[in-house]
Specification:
Elements lengths: L23 E6 L3 E6 L4 E5 L4 H5 L2 H5 L2 E3 L4 E4 L4 E4 H6 L7
Antiparallel strand pairs: 1-2, 2-3, 4-5, 5-6
């Protein structure tokens, strides 16, 4: 389902606001999901089961992450796990790559 041009969010200038890129701001993990909050306010939730290393990690290990490249990648140094925001947005998981 697409959003009609008249229903899209508007900027102060009256033009429709369409995000040009997704940049990560923060990451939160539950037992089953990872939620990435973007600088423009969007939140993407993906199943932790897509990422076996993160799924098997402790909550403390999942909390220790770094955002790289100004928001284009995620890194968990304790786990040696790296994810790209582009891959998350495209729905790519390790098993399908």
């Amino acid at each position: 389902m697409s959003i009609s041009p008249s229903r899209r969010p508007r900027s102060r200038s009256g033009r429709a606001f369409v995000p040009a890129t997704a940049l990560a701001k923060s990451v939160k993990c539950t037992k089953t999901m990872m939620q990435v909050t973007f600088t423009d306010g969007r939140i993407l939730s993906v199943p932790l089961a897509w990422f076996p290393t993160l799924h098997a990690a402790t909550p403390a290990q999942r909390m220790r992450y770094e955002i790289g490249g100004g928001g284009i990648s995620l890194h968990w140094p304790d786990l040696d796990e790296d994810l790209s925001i582009a891959g998350l947005m495209a729905g790519v998981d390790r098993e399908s790559a």
